Amino acid sequence: EVVLTQSPGTLSLSPGERATLSCRASQSVTGNFLGWYHQKPGQPPRLLIFGVFRRATGVPDRFGGSGSGTDFTLTLSRVEPEDFGVYYCQQYDSSPWTFGQGTKVEIK
Amino acid sequence: QVQLQESGPGLVKPSQTLSLTCSVSGGSISGGYSYWSWIRQPAGRGLEWIGRIFSTGSTTYNPSLESRVTISIDPSKNQLSLALNSVTAADTAVYYCARATESNWGDWYLDLWGRGSLVTVSS
Fold it and tell me: Looking at CA atoms only, how far is residue A104 from chain B in angstroms?
């Protein structure tokens, strides 16, 4: 199975700052089959990005995805207060689909 | 719009079978081109994909749970079901049903999630 390792574990940012979240795969994720989700406490995850860089419907353009192979990045160009929570990457290139362990974003 | 709602017992005894249902509203579970998945999340921890079923009934399971899990769909009730047998405390989690949709580029992403159902395994 593809193991996804996210870093850092926690990010503490002030509104307006830039956030860079990393997701590293134990083997190459082909076909750009990688997505990012955002989860707030008590809520289900919400799809942000699919296909490495394609924003889901309604996702603000301050969210951007990039990467290929084994290294992927989610960038928040200007963090907003509502962006707090945990961000997960997920690969759906091979079965079983797997998730990273998450990066927690805290707003100062 | 399509919505998903999980339901089932909140408490299951060890060694018994955990059974959950996901009701789909606003759309057909067997219409269109979708995978339907179950994902779980222990309290304070990350997400674990349990398995998926295609609208035709074809299933794929996580090898870590494959010997204990069954996912099925009932088109007549527009429902997705999960059965996990021989449960232990390690199976305590919030269980989500989710829809995977195929993009124009051939990838599948989990674009719609239920709100989740907490299941506790305890005697």
Answer: 11
